[in-house]
Amino acid sequence: MTAAALPLLRRTRVASSVIPGFGPTLGFTLFYLSLIVLLPLAALLLKAAGTTLAQWGHILSDPRVLSALWLSFGGAFAAALINAVFGLLVAWVLVRYPFPGRKIVDAFVDLPFALPTAVAGIALTALYAPNGWLGRLLEPLGIKVAFTPLGVVVAMVFIGLPFVVRTVEPVLQDVDLELEEAAASLGADRLQTFFRVILPAVAPSLLTGFSLALARGVGEYGSVIFIAGNLPGVSEIAPLLIITKLEQYDYVGATAIAAIMLAISFTLLLAVNLLQKWRRVRMGG
User: Fold this and answer.
1) For residues 198 and 203, what is the distance between their CA atoms, to the nearest angstrom?
2) What pTM value is reported for the model?
3) Which of 137, 158, 209, 239 has the most beta carbons within 10 angstroms of its beta carbon?
4) Long-range contacts of range 16-19, CB-CB < 8 Å, 24 or more positions apart?
């Protein structure tokens, strides 16, 4: 290597390191994530690895366990779908339409973030109980919300809505209005403009908000147990069943259910991320 090439090599190395101290910060990041996230999960998996096949078979064949897992994941999935639709609608209204009290409505969206989950559960129960404001109107119609699986979904919708709205809102703000005007000038009606121009632009963020709402719903505990009624096999969620197992000193059962929830949650989030990656590659192509 000639002496004239050394300054160019030094400049190249400096240019490749945009952030000063990348090595130490990356090391601290990996250490922090390992300490806070990976180490507890590894301890859970190691604990679950000590469960025998007979114990796994007994747990996986327990109708109470299967019902709780189905309600937790099925209810969270249904709530995330509802939030994906109505969260997009709320974000659209907040971004596109100025109206009196808009700032107040925008602040209400963040309320489930700040509200303690126990308070949210009590409020929802008081509202949808048979003698509540809405419950007394719905019960004559044969619709019972409180102390049913429907109440679980309602609670999950309540706590998951902000994730969709706050994820989609910045993307809608960046969508150029000229694209909609161009679509209209080419003869597209409102539905065609929405499905062919707006929805493709917000789809990645909408999918991200859906996955966040799904993850929050699966792990929700405080707001759900008040309105669910916690009837085994009917309205009992998996996190509550884990607490019940621990109170009964059934550490093997609690660990196994937690490991199952971890595996299913990881698989769902991985599928969502792969779907997002596939869509980015497809759109890029």
Assistant:
1) 9
2) 0.84
3) 209
4) none
